Amino acid sequence: MTIEATTHPEIARSFTLDSLPSAVRILAVTARPGQESADLGGPLYAFRRSGASLSLLCLTLGETAAESTGFTRLEAARPWEVQMAASILGISQVSVASYRDGRLHRYRTSELTGRIRHAVTKYSADLVLVVAPETGDIGDAAVARAATAAALQAGVPLAGRTRPGVSGAWMVDLGAEAEVARAIQKSAAAAHATQSEALPEMISRVDQLGSTEALRWLVSPARVSGQRILPG
Hints:
The chain has helices spanning 35-38, 41-49, 74-89, 109-122, 138-154, 178-190, 199-209; strands at residues 2-3, 25-30, 53-60, 91-99, 127-131, 158-162, 170-173, 212-219. It is α/β, with parallel strands linked by helices and 232 residues long. The chain has one domain: LmbE-like (Rossmann fold), CATH 3.40.50.10320.
């Protein structure tokens, strides 16, 4: 399934961070709907404000998630929630695959790698962004493994959003943009109406982040032929 999300108007390149890798086209890859907002919303905002275009590949429909009262058929509702969240975050293109939610670790890495590699080519990405394996669950680890292989094949760097203090991590400070960034991140998360019961906990986690995000290289520019060294 491919869903084209509406974009925000083009934003001027007035937001530049020395610690933010320079990239023109970012592809975010997630295991399930909602992660583009709750986990990657801060970094995606920073990239968007730096002038980069954003694309998203979500590998599952999120059908095994907890369901709020009054909703049925999560596999039908959640992809549209991703579309709405993507519009809020400024993600211009969204693809939602139908691998089984909660079972990504059971697929062949080569199969997931092929799907991610296709998205890298389709969106002409020059940087891939995922949830780092030490931050997420077994599904996120499967995504990170497959994305690592895909990035190496495609010759593009791969960054993972991680926790402060993790070896190799560096901090991105949103600075004066932090309040706006977090408000947009929370609004995007709220678009996932089927998961509304989890929203207060997610908002609490975002509030604790303050103005900073931690990233680390899973595939550094130095490992990719023909790529110049980026900050970090």
